[in-house]
Amino acid sequence: MKKLLTLAFVAILSLNSFAQTADLRRKIHVSGSSETEVTPDIIYIGISLKEYFKDNNSKKKVDITTLETELYNAVLKAGIAKEDLTVNNVSSYNYATEKKKNPDFLASKQYRLKVSDLNKFNAILESLDAKGVANTNVESYDYSKIESLKKDLKVKALLAAK
Fold first, then answer.
1. Mean pLDDT over all residues of the chain?
2. Which of 71, 83, 105, 142 could make a disulfide contact with 42, Cβ separation 3.0–4.6 Å?
3. Backbone phi, psi, residue 107, to 5°
4. Domain that includes residue 115, residue range
């Protein structure tokens, strides 16, 4: 019985050694890199609009829809496509019911604007009501020809690897 168990144990160990064969093919490892700097030509800007009271009087309020139409008109006047202005966030909790209960409730909306020229954005800000704009910030940058740039850099990296 001991001989049978020993023979089985040796057979199992020998199967494990046959499974690990070395790859004897010749290999060459080559590495190359390439980099370039680009100036982003697409800028995403966040614009936050907020309702406010005229002349600190709680009876006359500038509604969010008025501020929205001002923003849309300013975007179209600046020559930016309507599709480049999107709603990013609406910040108001329980908007419909809270507004009925509390007339002093102020709503706000955040927009994301895609611009290729910051001078157009300056023109938009000049035509908006300054009290209605809560804040603006640059959210992100992008480069429109990124795919062709990646292909060119891969080619340069391959040439550098030779």
1. 83
2. 142
3. -95, 160
4. 42-142
